[in-house]
Amino acid sequence: MSKESTIAPTEKALQHYDYAIVGAGASGLWLAMAMQDAGITAEKTLHLSERDPAKGDDRTWCYWAKAPIFPGHKQEEIWEAFKRPDAPERTVHIAPYRYFHVRSSEFYAYAENKLAGNSRITRAAEDVQSVREIEGTVHVKTSEREYTASRVFLSAPPKDRTGLPELRDFLGGPRPESPGLIQSFSGRRIKTEVPVFDTAAATLMRFDVPQGDSTRFLYVLPFSEREALVELTAFGSECLASDDALPVIRDFMQNLDTGYQIIEEETASIPMSARFDMLRKRLPADTRIVYIGTPAGALKPTTGYAFKRTEAYARRLAAALAAGTDLPTMHRKRRFRLYDRLLLRILVEKPHRGKEIFERLFKTQKTVKILKFLDEETSLAEEISIFSRLQIPLFLEALTKDLFRR
Ligand SMILES: Cc1cc2nc3c(=O)[nH]c(=O)nc-3n(C[C@H](O)[C@H](O)[C@H](O)COP(=O)(O)OP(=O)(O)OC[C@H]3O[C@@H](n4cnc5c(N)ncnc54)[C@H](O)[C@@H]3O)c2cc1C
Questions:
Q1: pTM here?
Q2: Does the C-beta of 378 come closer than 6 Å to ligand 1?
Q3: CB 251 within 8 A of CB 270
Q4: How far is the CA of 25 from the centre of ligand 1 (A)?
């Protein structure tokens, strides 16, 4: 009799996966799909743990791009022009970009459909409680069970952070002090009795709303002449409550002179902070616990856009995993991180100046150049030409404070 067979098993072997993703939201699902597209799941197993698989329509995502990154956009969810923030009666075309909108429920269904049928990909409704790396294997404890994985991607850190790499260290150590804000928005999907909306153009920012002690603007997405999302957004230290937005939305609708009905509401907030800025360009190929999504710096601090960035990052990450090379991060160039910190500082210290900064930006620059700048694809010369037309003393004061960390 062999030695092994005389030993009684003391505990049941844990289920093991090659890869696991914690959180099947935007970044988790983009990564799972990218790993499948890169051929990784033809041989390796991938498990997704999501605590709330029934979340459905928990948000809507918009992005501008030259080509859609999501194949299921309906025609009424694509715009080729914007209303100008400083002159809402004027429309500017944004070619070569278009502005796209997708409901989260449609994105989740698309991802589910794409991943279904791959027997190496599994999903479970489970709340991940702890993640620990022990002797080269990652142990994951969920509300339902425990499993192990060779590598885990975290879009949401579990409550018990013991055993996790410190997020600060993962991101690359201490970063320049930066004031933080909250971007909060409260919108209503509205159906009108008569056709009133101009479907040719979306409104990203419209500042003819009371500013209060935050920078506030209206955001309007016209899906048809009778249906639109009308949203109040605030960059401030406190979250907008659902009721704060109603009077502003009512005023806007009153000017359109039509009866209307509210059919949906979206109220949420996201951090505007350089705290999640990734300072490392690469991670060693054998890193076993990798943050992705919001904790890894997916949200651009001054805009809150992340959907397109998470998709692009997922493709780069999957390519590196397939090639077995060092892993890329969501590192951003130093100067773009600085621009974000300067604007955040101004918005924190002088919230009443936000309106004039954004209006001046759109008045003095081509919208396409602003979109390129927000995508962090402009040249230094283009950035100088942008800042030279803005409120220079304000930015110089913010720069001085940033340099001397005041
Ligand atoms: C209402 C709203 C609207 C937005 N609109 C836009 C937009 O128009 N354009 C844009 O570019 N960005 C937008 N954003 C910002 C950003 O794109 C989203 O926040 C995006 O969802 C971030 O992706 P993520 O993967 O980091 O987080 P999420 O998509 O939130 O995914 C994290 C997932 O982890 C799950 N989870 C959390 N804890 C656990 C746990 N312990 N165990 C298991 N699962 C867990 C959550 O349920 C969730 O599904 C918006 C954000 C919000 C909140």
A1: 0.94
A2: no
A3: no
A4: 5
**How would CATH label the architecture of 15-56+102-177+276-328?**
3-Layer(bba) Sandwich (3.50)
Which percentage of the chain shows pLDDT scores above 90?
83
More confident residue, 328 or 4: 328
Dist CA 296 CA 280 (whole Å): 11
Quote the CA–CA distance of 97 and 278 in Å, as a whole number.
27
Whether the predicted pLDDT of 7 surpasses 60 = no
Q: Is the distance from the beta carbon of residue 268 to the nearest atom of ligand 1 less than 6 Å? A: yes
Is the CB–ligand 1 distance for residue 27 below 6 Å? yes
Q: How many helices (H) and strands (E) does the chain have?
A: 11, 19
Strand ranges for 57-160 from DSSP E: 60-65, 78-79, 81-84, 87-93, 98-103, 121-125, 128-134, 137-142, 146-154
d(CA 91, CA 247): 26
| Beta strand 327-328 pairing with 282-283 | antiparallel
Instruction: For domain 181-272, say whether CATH 3.30.9.10 is its number.
Output: yes
Does the CB atom of residue 61 touch ligand 1 within 6 A? yes
Q: Could you tell me the two tokens for 281?
A: 């360009």
For strand 215-224 and strand 282-283, is the pairing parallel, antiparallel, or unpaired? unpaired
